[in-house]
Amino acid sequence: RLRSGHTLPTALVDAAEARDPVATDARRLLRRVEHGEPVVSALAWWADDRGDDAVRAVAGALAVATTTGGGAADALEGLARSLRDQHGARAEAAALSSQARMSAVVVGAAPFAYLAFSAAVDPGAARVLVATPVGRVCLALGIGLDAIGALWMRRIVRSEP
């Protein structure tokens, strides 16, 4: 309805009859507007009540369009496009970080897996690591470097896009 020039309260009536999750929010907004609350104030309440960045953006776009008399439909279409792009970027970042997490597990586990394999195949080589002073130093350095690498990988994986 906004595309054909109707007001936001008229569009809310239609949205209130739609399916959830839109209908519930539209009914709550419409109830406030019908009880005399200004549309912009009802939109601000909605944004605060939901506490979601996307809802805040939609409420802001609708408030600006209501206040200035601009095209709410065009603003919402542009905002929807932007939100879809953000969602896609987050999904891609999550996929890439899951690859990095798996790499971190492999890199962290590889030395211990090799040590177990080596002990099974040649127990004498593993004995050198735990029974001699030089072997214990090498083992301690290896574990320390592995721990530093794990912390580094963790920091890389947790960085925000």
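^ that was protein a. below is b, sequence first then the tokens
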Amino acid sequence: MKPSLIALFSLFAFIASSAKAFVIDAEGEPVVNGGTYYILPFINVLGGGLTLAKTGNETCPLSVKPYPSLPIHLEHGLPWKIASPLRIRYLPTNVWVDFFTVDETIPSCVPFPSRWTIVEEEDGVKSVKVSGHGYENTITGVFRIKKYTKIGYTYKIVFCPTDSDSCKDIGLSSRGLVLTDDVPLGVIFVKVESSEVSKQVINNVLEA
């Protein structure tokens, strides 16, 4: 076989393998770097999309958790800008990403811009909150999106501390999203520009 053909086939193979590694949204399209998405639990009995809520002694909603909605009335939660510092058009799995608030949608008491951060609370639980309140007990590191199950376009979010060689799954507790050694929270990504978020969107994802 000619070297030029070998190179061409190698290029096609690389493109195909790279495409499989993209984070895919609920409509089957790659997640855009810097795009705005709703993030919903793929098991909708866990609630609606991720939003901000007050937990503990908070007087302002700073904790990230699913919107408390029923499966028959699914709420999409807040939109989140998902961005990587890498100069890429689409987001592959397992690269550094940040989750930012979108100005028009957050309560006035929440600083803008804010991004997800990990805060170690007094009882040792490491919770997902939004930055900007001058926490003294934040944990430095990066978030990554990884494929979770073979069911549809489902993913999990992990946090990789800078002082550790391993990453921790983001799971769900009564106070919201937390680092966990137990079951991670499986999520899907729905473009804000999409039509109304409903149970049918979830069903389409699970059937993919």
